[in-house]
Structures are given as C-alpha cells and as structure tokens.
Design a protein that fits this description.
Layout lengths: L1 E3 L2 H11 L4 E9 L7 E8 L8 E4 L9 H8 L4 E4 L3 H11 L6 E3 H7 L8 H9 L19 H28 L2 H8 L26 H21 L3 H4 L2 H10 L4 H4 L12 H16 L19 H18 L3 H4 L2 H8 L10 H15 L3 E6 L2 E6 L2
Parallel strand pairs: 1-4, 2-5, 5-6
Antiparallel strand pairs: 2-3, 3-4, 7-8
Helix pairs in contact: 1-2, 4-6, 5-6, 8-10, 8-12, 13-15, 13-16
Length: 386
Amino acid sequence: MKTLTTTQDLADFCTAAAQHPYVTVDTEFLRERTYYSKLCLVQLAYPGEGDENAVLVDPLAEGMSLEPLHELFRNTDVVKVFHAARQDLEIFWIDAQVFPEPLFDTQVAAMVCGFGEQVGYETLVRKICKQGLDKTSRFTDWSRRPLSKAQQTYALADVTHLRKIYEYLAAELEKSGRSRWVTEELTILTSPATYDIRPQDAWKRVKTRTTSGKFLAVVRELAQFREEYAQANNVPRNRVFKDDALVELASTKPRSGSDLGNSRLLLREARKGAISEGILAAVKRGVDCPPEDHPKIDKSRDKMQVNPALADLLRVLLKSKTESAGVAAKLIAPSSDLDAIAAGMRDVPALSGWRYEVFGEDAMRLCEGEIALTAKGQAVKVVSLG
C-alpha cells in the first residue's frame, strides 16, 4: 500500500489517473469535535486489480496541497466515482469550491438498478464483487499518525472494490438506458446551494410543538446565533447549546445572566462569556421583533384535503411500477408525496423527469379517471378506460 505525502507525488498519480476513463474516490474524516469536517485521508484508484493503481493520500502531511486532485476533479474526460458522495462532496466544496465532474455515485446507481433503498457499500461488495469487507476500523480516529496496517487496508478497500462495482453498474445502466436517470439524481449533489448553510434558516430544523409567531421569533434568533457561533469557532452546534435547551430558552426568555443560571438544560460553558451574551442578545431581538417579521410556518400540506382512497390506489400503482422497473419505491416517491398528489398538488418530484416516465404519467391518468387498476394473481395491471 502506497501513501502519498507530498504534492509532487500526488501530482504524478493524478497525471497517470488522467489517462484512464475513471478514478474511484473516497475520504476519511472527523466531525465529532468540529463544525466543518476535518479531512484526514483521501483514497484514490484507477483501473487495475487488487491494490494495483490505488493509493492513500495524506492531506495532513506537512506541505501537502490537494490542488493536483482538484485539477483532476475539473478534468471532464475522467469520471469521478464515489459511493454515497454527499459528505465527500461537501468537504471538497467547502475546502476548495470544487466539484468532481463528471460524477458517478454508486449508491444512487444501485437504487436505479434495483438494489434497494440507500444500499450500503458493503452490500455491493458482497453482491457484485462476491467478497466480504473487514469493517473493524470504521470508527477509528483517522487524524492520528501513523495509520495502522488495519486502517490502511480498510481505507484502500473503499476504492479498490469500487472499480468493479462502477464498471458493473455503468454497464447495467447502459443496457437499460437509465444513465440519464442517475445524471438527473446527481444534479442536486453538485449544486452549491446543497451545501449552503444559511444561519437565518437554521430555526427550521428545530422541532417545536408551538407555532406561535412570537415564540418562533425567539427560536429563529437563538438558532441563528448558535449557527453563526458554531461556524465562526468551528465547533458542533450542539456544543454551543442543544435543541432542547434552545426551546427552553425560547420559552423562558431570560433577560440576565442570573436568569440563564436557572436553565435546566443549558451547558455550564454557555452560561458565561460570549455564548451567554449572544443568547441574551438573541432573546432580546426575538422578543422585540415586530409581528409582521415573525417567522411563518408553511402549513399548506397540513391543510391538504387528501383523498384517502386515491392515495391508496397511488400506493398500489407505485408498488406495481417500481417492481416492474426494478427501482426502489422511495426513490420515486415517499408516502408524503403520494398524499400530496392525492390532494391535488402537482409540484412534486414524482411528476417530473425520469420519475414521470416510470410512475408520474400513469399517476396523473389515475387521478383523472383515465385508467383503472386490476389484480390477477400476484400481478397488478393498468387498464385504460378511454
């Protein structure tokens, strides 16, 4: 196993990789103690057998620059292959404002090819490569040096098997004519907006039982302060204060340091210094917020008049269509989207793109009374009423 610790070595490998149609990529990182992921290792491989043409890249090595890798990511002649790429892409986008192009995600491709919902890498290795994986090093500290032999073996396996998995899935997509489906799915992964965390919208992730505008105004200000503090100090948001403490603060609306001392849920570190000052200022902004600026929760789906019989028929249709197409049902439409369609909503993913071809077109015909469903044995068939 070869570990690259200099920029020149990385540049040499990337030059060699650029002569091949694809390169497989994976990362190891830590995020437990930071807001942003700390990149600790990059694994790369281009076509070959076993550990041939596969390397580990140490981004923590003194003087190491990942610019040669970023340049390879920009090379559109080489497909960059990941499994469950979202967190990896977030790291590269935040660190260098670069996305791998073109991108292939084997988890997405596997769902399109009928391997089930959010299929894991280990499952694909077992089913496609007919091998097992040693996962004992999965939760180790990847920032410590030197890496153990077990860590290196585990990390390299994440890109060596990926070569065969990619080649198999790419061939299956080519045969079925579904490559475009995967391309559509990956568009959101290579959009900067996907990784743009807006502190002013952080309140939307906080679960509360209250929809009062006055209450939510304080929640919004507290959540925004927490997000901004966590980003600025690169600490997890829960290390500032947790959601249950945030909701408690929005309810009690402390006005002084002594009020903060009465909180049951607030961490000791948050009752003094910059965090306590930020909390008090955020509460005051929320309390002083005029009614016209209060947050408003989108209740459109809560008010939907769902036709339950139609929703049930749509579920039967979806099951039939996805079984026939060999595609994971949740990849087409979650249950909430079926309810939305049954309530008359049309701005749902299942009614556009490749999903429309597989399910959406007949779903609309069912809603319009143009088709019926019949059962014969285990099969459900669509019958035209026109």
